[in-house]
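Following up on my earlier thread - several people asked me to post the actual chain instead of describing it. Fair enough. Here it is, all 69 residues.
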Amino acid sequence: MKKFILFLKCVLPHVVIILSLVLGTMLVLHQFNPRMGFLTNSISQKYLTVLLVSSFVLALLQAPHGSDK
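Reply from S.P.:
Thanks for posting it. Predicted structure:
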């Protein structure tokens, strides 16, 4: 169980980086073509932007520490 928790501490920040980049791509695509309906509500776009930035910064801060332990 301890190995699994250490594995998650190493992998999860990288997963968050990847998912935040995917979400960022969706935000950009929505700006170019809003008819695709990726994000339809303006407040949801703001919430998703905050989530994108905060999770990316958190993952960047956490990723170097994950391999030390």
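Residues 2-32 form the longest helix (31 residues). That should answer part of your original question.
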